[in-house]
Amino acid sequence: MKSRKSVLKGTALLFLVLSAGLTFNSCGKKEAEASDSLAPELEITDGNPEELLQTPQRWHVTNKRLFVLFGYDFNAPEVYEPLLESLKERYGLDADGGLILPYVYPNDFKHGTRGFSNDFFNVLQDPAYDFCGILLIGAPEHTHIAMARNQDAWENLPYPVIALFPQDDILGLEATCDIVVDKGFTAGLNGDNIEDETEALVFSEAPEIIIDAIDYILELEGPLEKNTQIQNHILQMFKGKKIHHYTDPESGLQAINHFVLN
After folding, report:
1. Which residues pair with 180 in a beta bridge?
2. 149, 155 in Cβ contact below 8 A?
3. What is residue 95's DSSP assignment?
4. How far apart are CA 38 and CA 32, in angstroms?
5. Distance CA 233, CA 230 (A)
6. pTM of the model
7. Which residues contact 120 (CB under 8 A, 6 or more apart)?
8. Of 83, 164, 237, 257, whose CA is between 20 and 30 Å from 207?
9. Count of alpha carbons within 13 Å of 254, Cβ hemisphere only?
10. Residue 35 pLDDT
11. Which residue from 138, 129, 134 is spatially nearest to 149, judged by alpha carbons?
């Protein structure tokens, strides 16, 4: 039979064990609660989260560059800035590691004929750039000189050159560009019924035409094949649009790589 003293000792020992357990659990809960209360919260400080989710970046960083020249009719800020913003969203700009390397004539070139053609050629020959194509929009006078020098610098030009709505020498551009698309006038197949094209039509359709041209350059992934009919390329580039060959008004001859959008 246990003595009273032994029972009391056992009871005291049990009480101490239970008290220690309760204290440990209580501390554990408090530490867990404190840990939960200090958990970091994700915060977005740059921009509106809803806008970031609604407008994901459409382009990826690339080492390739597509040279885009904004010339006559497209060199005013109110014209080229909206176009440039559209290209930025779709392809990215060179400054951000994107595809498009834009230049505006004459702001981004030296003043004077020699300054422009020389500067243009120097940019095209800059080893820092790996070009996948050249798109001339409203090419100013003497653009074809830079294009000819660039051709001579390569044994075989490794990318396509497309001129949209040019105002440079026609024969010069036809000789130095793969495809020329005109907007200054429309002509019938026989060279008759030449009419001035309205500026409103040019500017309303220009963004779509520019995007189509860039997308086709990217689709080619290299120089335009000369052994195929150029007409096939223009029809694929501007699907659904009415296109006909440019006809020289003086000679009545049709250019092989020069077209007019109706």
Report:
1. 163, 258
2. no
3. G
4. 10
5. 5
6. 0.74
7. 69, 103, 109, 143, 146
8. 257
9. 12
10. 43
11. 134
Q: Rg (Cα) of the chain, in Å, rounded?
A: 34
Q: What is the pLDDT of residue 33?
A: 46
CB contact at 8 A, 259 and 180:
yes
Amino acid at site 194:
I
Tokens describing residue 40: 């970091």
Cα separation, 222 vs 161, whole angstroms: 11
Evaluate whether 242 touches 190 at the Cβ level (below 8 Å). Answer: no
Distances 254 to 144, 194, 250 between C-alpha atoms, Å? 20, 14, 11
Q: Residue 54's pLDDT is what?
A: 56
Q: Token match 């003497």: residue? A: 142
Alpha carbon distance 88, 83 (integer Å): 9
Spatial distance between the Cα atoms of 73 and 79, rounded to a whole number of angstroms: 8
Q: Which residues of the chain have pLDDT under 50?
A: 1-45, 47, 52, 184, 186-198
CA dihedral 145, 146, 149, 153 (to 10 degrees): -170
Hey, which residues does 243 pair with through a beta bridge? 261
Residues 149, 57: Cα–Cα separation, whole Å = 37
Q: Given this model, what pLDDT does residue 190 score?
A: 38
Give the amino acid at 198.
T
Token pair, residue 10, equals 């056992």
Number of H helices, E strands in the chain: 8, 9
Residue 21 near residue 29, CB atoms below 8 Å: no
